[in-house]
Amino acid sequence: MKIEYDLIVIGGGVLGTFHAYHALQMGFRVALIEKDKKPQGATIQNFGQVVPSGMDSKWQTYGRSSLKIYKEIQSKFDISVRQNGSVYLASNEEEVQLIEELRQINQANAYESHLLTKQQCLDKYPGLRSDYVKAGLFFPEEVTVEPRTMIYKLQDYMIHQMGLTLLLNTSIINCESSSEGVVLSSAAHEEFVAAKVIICNGNEFKNLYPALFNESDLEVSKLQMLQTKPQANYKLPGSVLTGLSIRRYEAFYECPSFKAIKAKEDPNSTEKKWGVHILFKQAADGSVILGDSHQYADARNQEDLGFDLDMDIDNFMIAEARKIIDLPNYEIQNRWYGRYSQCKTTDIFEKTIDTNIHIITGIGGKGMTGSAGFSKENNIKIFNR
Ligand SMILES: Cc1cc2nc3c(=O)[nH]c(=O)nc-3n(C[C@H](O)[C@H](O)[C@H](O)COP(=O)(O)OP(=O)(O)OC[C@H]3O[C@@H](n4cnc5c(N)ncnc54)[C@H](O)[C@@H]3O)c2cc1C
């Protein structure tokens, strides 16, 4: 057998697809292999908020690089990127304090943001409740994508404009280095050979290296999501993040007052029990995506998270959302849960099996934001460029 590709990426989610994208840009022959008819993992199940503003400094840098990459691709080919900015809405004095501090951090990082008064928030976000909002912090550079279509459009672009080979319905169950290169075997007994392999398997831990994943500190989060029916004559621009997000997102951990404010929170509150914070994003069809909750299990026990949607969680999220924005209608057309993997102790799972086989997963809740920028840098490391 001889080497057919310089790189094969296993996993057609956002992390795998952007590793393939940058390798193509580096001039390599690349194949992307996906086990399903179409990828349907976390990359399809999410909000599509690209929000470097919510990340810690390290991932904000990757997120800002991602923004450039998304915009550059969108300027050539429609992959559903819309630049409407992101806003954090503070609902009390503590949250106002935190957005003011985050504004200062971002000023020092040369990342554009604007404090909005209560009235400016009310003018910009229709239906926003005057008894909820106190002030806002707006990031004009940030974008949204349509999670249910973006990755398919991007892969189409990569096939037709960049020479990607995309192999769908191909579950890889073995991966081994040999004198000829790295040999991959599929469940259907096909073999593929590449000089290098990058495995971006998301939260699928049974097909390849199961023992490694079972012993790792990877965990899986299950997130409940809701989508209203399309809202008639109503526009909610960009990503809308609210008070509970200000109290949850990593970016705010770097604010001087964060620790003291967190220390005053009730550890037994309903939002803590289910890991709920409230986010809104209007999809291109006018519907509004609402969420989300977080429940966790170790990677080896992810089935314990179950397949039910807990209606108590959904009802709580709708009740909380209603306190923030009076949408024209709260009729729900879709409910689902998504799952992603993350590490308990590090920001991403990276394991080099040998010099030519690399596993990268566990990007957590930051994959739509960070993957494009992170994988560009990671490819440079992997290919020693
Ligand atoms: C509900 C929800 C909301 C979120 N909202 C946001 C958001 O607004 N902004 C944000 O930045 N992030 C968000 N995230 C996080 C983001 O969606 C994830 O970080 C990201 O999609 C992970 O991408 P991935 O490629 O690692 O995994 P996945 O998308 O799960 O892709 C992994 C792929 O690998 C394939 N695969 C696995 N093993 C094999 C194998 N052996 N052979 C072949 N194929 C294989 C799988 O079929 C799958 O398609 C959210 C996540 C969820 C669940």
Please render the helix and strand layout as text.
Elements: E1 5-10, H1 14-25, E2 30-33, H2 42-45, E3 49-50, H3 57-76, E4 86-90, H4 93-108, E5 114-117, H5 118-124, E6 135-139, E7 143-144, H6 150-162, E8 165-167, E9 172-178, E10 181-186, E11 191-199, H7 210-215, E12 218-228, E13 239-241, H8 243-246, H9 250-253, H10 258-263, H11 270-273, E14 279-282, E15 288-291, E16 295-298, H12 311-324, E17 332-343, E18 349-354, E19 357-361, H13 367-382
Parallel strand pairs: 1-2, 1-11, 2-8, 4-13, 11-19
Antiparallel strand pairs: 3-7, 4-6, 5-6, 9-10, 10-11, 12-15, 12-16, 12-17, 13-14, 14-15, 18-19
Helix pairs in contact: 1-6, 1-13, 3-13
Proportion of residues in extended strands: 25-35%
**What best-fitting shape do the alpha-carbon axes yield?**
globular
Stretches with pLDDT under 50, minimum 5 residues? none
Oligomeric assembly: single chain
Structural class: alpha+beta
Tally of individual helices: 13
Question: Mean pLDDT, as a whole number?
Answer: 97
Rg from Cα = 21 Å
Tell me the distance between the termini: 27 Å
Strand elements, count: 19
Helix fraction?
25-40%
Task: Summarize the main sheet.
Answer: 9 strands, mixed
Which small compounds were modeled alongside the protein? flavin-adenine dinucleotide
